[in-house]
Amino acid sequence: MKFVGITKRWFLNVASIVIIILVAISVALIFSLRSYYYSAAAMTLDSYSSEEIASSINLYGDTSEKGFETAGRKFVETFPDKETMAVWLIDSSGNIVLSSSGFEIKGEVEMPDYAMALVNDEGSAKWTGKLPSGEKIMASTCIYDYPNGTHGGAIRFMVSMEAIDEQLIRICLLIISACVALFSLVVISGSFFTRSIVNPVKSIDETAKRIAGGDLEARIDHYPYNDELGDLCTTINDMATKLAATDRLKNDFISTVSHELRTPLTAIKGWGETLLQIGDTDPTMTERGMGVIISEASRLNDMVEELLDFSRMSSGRLQLKNEKIDILAELDEVVFAFKERSMREGIELVYNAPRVLAPATGDSARIKQVFINILDNAIKYTKHGGKINVIAERPNKATLVISVSDTGAGISPEDLPHIKEKFFKANTTVRGSGIGLAVADEIVKLHNGELEISSVLGEGTTVKITLPIERAERDSSEKEGDSKTDEHKEEM
């Protein structure tokens, strides 16, 4: 496990905290155990230096100089815990006159507890230290006086702390071993955990770099866990898939637009060269050529405008020039304009609309553009002998619904959800840039309307446009009671 990146941050943030907690718990536990054992030793000493022991000694004592020593010898000789505790009998001069071990104590021995007990009002004191032999002990000295107040001597109780310290050392080693094992377990489990994060993150990073470098086929390998990283991997793979699809659509779009631009440009160039060669010798040919040039130039202009509209739409700069308009009047003009084309291509165009006003606030040019794009698609995808129905209805006073249905090629169920996406073309064999419906959908949305498309492959397509309209006075025919039945029906 390399100590860099996320692993380093994990160790500094998590492992360091675990170390601090383990050390704090270990120190607290060790000091608590030491305090407990030392307190137990002190309580044992206190139990032998109580007033009951003093009373038992004084029962044997008298006011003579040797009275305390006699009683003390009796107490030491009959002391029941000689195996675990040492008892010294100290005379009034501070000399050790008897030891429970039976060995004579010679020379001066440092007894800080005895010195403190002499000046202590309670007549007792404790001390923890080492004997000249190096053995660590806890000692407690009690001063005993005769009933008349004369100093009789002292008894010193001593407990060896070697066994306690050895036990504490074993416990410390056990605690340290447990902490090391626990920390090792944390590090091992943490390394597996961080590796389960770091490795996918590295894979994500490498894949993202490949995608950024243009490799849109790059994908993240299967991630085994159902968590946030798994969601991220899925999202990035989906993003790459969509980018690849968008890139293909973009390339197809560029190819289509290039072809669409080349066709009129070729016609314009060809007729321009022809007219330049014939000069004024053939007025009929000149007139025909100029007509083609003007027609193709208009076609180029329409394509450029469509591309500009798409650019504005993509950048959110597509704006409307709102004014009071009659939507049905705009529809009438567009349908009339497509009359000749539909007849020329052998397609029946049927138009049904109520004889009412459909006032609204909007951009007349943009509304016309929507109708033109939809009718243009209907004619392009409908074969000779087909039929197109344009029906306008008012389901209520505030809504206008316009349906354009054709008997054309239709759209497959797989392509239908994407038909309004930019660059998408369900049928690449038909001319067009593939952005007409995307622009139309955006314009309808800007007018607070909705554009819906339904289709059956091989049977035809229906585009339904729903637009909000404003209330207005009904025309004279409606006032005469004919509004429910009188419709303007026109076959083209």
Helix share bin: 40-55%
Number of helices in the DSSP assignment:
12
The global form is: rod-shaped
- What is the count of β-strands? 13
CATH architecture of the largest domain: 2-Layer Sandwich
Order of helices and strands: HHHEEHEEEHHHEHHEEHEEHEEHE
Structural class: alpha+beta
At the first level of CATH, the class of the largest domain is Alpha Beta
State the domain count: 4
Strand content: 15-25%
Low-pLDDT runs of 5+ residues are 473-492
Query: Mean pLDDT, rounded to whole units?
Result: 82
Distance between the termini: 78 Å
The biggest beta sheet is recorded as:
6 strands, mixed
- State the oligomer: single chain
Task: Give the radius of gyration.
Answer: 53 Å
Largest sheet: spatial strand order: 11-12-10-9-7-13
CATH superfamily of the largest domain: Histidine kinase-like ATPase, C-terminal domain
Question: Can you offer a commentary on this structure?
Answer:
The chain is α+β, with helices and mostly antiparallel strands. It folds into four domains: 5-39 and 166-204; 63-160, PAS domain (Beta-Lactamase, 2-Layer Sandwich), CATH 3.30.450.20; 228-290, Signal transduction histidine kinase, dimerisation/phosphotransfer (DHp) domain (Helix Hairpins, Orthogonal Bundle); 323-491, Heat Shock Protein 90. 52% of the residues lie in helices and 18% in strands. The protein has twelve helices and 13 strands. The strands form three sheets. A six-stranded mixed sheet has the order 11-12-10-9-7-13. α2 (51-60) packs across α3 (67-77), α6 (228-278) packs antiparallel against α7 (283-314) and α7 (283-314) packs across α11 (436-446). It starts with a helix and ends with a strand. Mean pLDDT is 82; it is low at 473-492.
